[in-house]
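Lab notebook, bench 4. Still working through the backlog of constructs that have no structural model yet. Next entry is a single chain of 247 residues. Request: give me the structure tokens for it.
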Amino acid sequence: MSITTPEELERLRAAGAVVQRVLQEMKRNVRAGVTTAELDALGDKVMRDEGARSAPALVYQFPGSSCISLNDEAVHGIPSDRGLQEGDLVKLDVTVEKDGFMADAALTVPVGAVSREKQRLMACAERAFAKAMLVARAGFRVLEIGRVVEREVRREGFSVIRDLGGHGIGRTIHEAPRVPNYPDPHASDILTEGMVITIEPIIAAGGGRAVLAEDGWTVKTADHKPSAHYEHTIVITKGAPIVLTAA
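Model written out:
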């Protein structure tokens, strides 16, 4: 969507604030032995307390409130009785609906001590996001975001998962434009003031090819290498974008 009134911006900010509270509550409880279903229940309680709803459950009938993915699971992991283990990478991906508006963010959290490779992977996803913010401005083309993300990821010896990326958001989860993490020539839309999008580097330590798991939801790396995910919902301006889902 594109914001046209101050009221729309405030409602999106309110949805974004709930996303951040959910993420922080789940992050605080990430530790060995906790199940992904327990994390999901904590996040769901925050949503309900804030008068918000799970957007994936609302729009797509996702079997959980938030997507929680481990290690080689890149996105859309279903919460379950699977317990976290020392050394895991946990991807927490939260999208909420509040008062008719939606916001989306994700982060990657280590369980205890993780390998050097996993540490580098997490840092790379965040750094790729930060660098993409420099070209997420009115007048740039969407593909410039992907160019910056992929350049940073490749520089670190990792791969973007090309099947996955960012998107427009606002009234529903996935709106135009598509925001790839590589310079797709088809992503030629020009960013305009007020446009609401997500930027979300989803990267892997291996080749970056993705496969769909048997559960029909979870997307995993084909070579079983670990992945990392970092995301915020932003509003495009002439200068630095407004980050709706930051604390």
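Notes after review: The mean pLDDT is 98. The two ends are 22 Å apart (CA to CA). Flag for follow-up if needed.
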